[in-house]
Design a protein that fits this description.
- The protein is mostly helical.
- It has two domains: 114 residues, no CATH class; 102 residues.
- Helices cover 74% and strands 0% of the residues.
- It is built from twelve helices and no strands.
- Helix 8 runs antiparallel to helix 9, helix 9 packs antiparallel against helix 10 and helix 11 crosses helix 12.
- The longest helix is centred in the first third of the chain and has 18 residues.
- It starts with a helix and ends with a helix.
Length: 227
């Protein structure tokens, strides 16, 4: 089946061409120490000691401190409603600043559908804000949403827009960059609204350069067909 897909893609490309994913803020030396001690206290289970240390580091802009402080607020034995809401707000701040662990925790909370859980609209807004700044992880997640229609109108153009952000990331930063480029190759070769033969060939080349085996096979078959 995989070989048939590759052959179909190569053939489509030939016809078309012939016809036409955690950053953190730097903090002062003082609060670097507070962050380290706060995280250590949290991991040791001493939340009473961890909370003021993490609060101090969070106030100074340490993204990781915001996430750990949110964990304390959300995961207590009998958390207060204000703590639950504040914890989610801190996770949103951390996610907006590039903390992927915070983004994942928010998505898990969304799926739990609790009273304090973020909504799907909240998650999409966070992902769009990050993706607009070039975040490949957020862009990849948005591309998937536009592919499936989760929370947005399914759209090849929307999918392609965010795949391009993911595909242009350095593979060392975002290992799925090659896969994103290959999906763009497929969209531009086989799609409807997003069809563009030159873009299909270009993105297949990018995917192959980034180690995508399927893209390399397509390019070899395409060269044979054109030869």
């Amino acid at each position: 089946m995989k070989n048939r897909v590759l052959v179909s893609l190569a053939a489509a490309l030939s016809i078309l061409i012939a016809g036409g994913a955690s950053a953190g803020s730097s903090v002062s030396g003082l609060n670097d120490g507070a962050l380290e001690r706060g995280v250590a206290a949290y991991r040791a289970g001493d939340h009473d000691a961890a909370r003021p240390l993490l609060s101090a580091a969070a106030d100074d802009g340490a993204v990781k401190a915001k996430r750990y402080l949110a964990y304390i607020m959300l995961d207590g034995e009998t958390p207060k409603e204000d703590d639950l809401l504040s914890g989610v707000a801190l996770l949103k701040e951390a996610a907006l600043e590039g903390d992927y662990a915070a983004l994942i925790r928010l998505e898990n909370l969304r799926r739990e559908r609790l009273a304090h859980s973020p909504t799907l609209d909240d998650m999409i807004a966070l992902e769009e804000a990050r993706a607009e700044d070039g975040d490949p992880v957020a862009a990849w997640r948005l591309a998937k949403r536009f592919e499936t229609g989760e929370g947005v109108a399914a759209s090849e153009a929307g999918m392609a827009k965010w795949l391009e952000v993911a595909a242009t990331a350095e593979p060392a930063r975002f290992p799925k960059a090659g896969e994103a480029a290959y999906r763009l190759c497929e969209l531009n070769a086989l799609g409807g609204e997003a069809k563009d033969p030159d873009a299909a060939r270009r993105w297949c080349a990018v995917a192959a350069e980034n180690g995508h085996t399927g893209a390399a096979i397509v390019l070899r078959r395409l060269a044979q067909l054109q030869g």
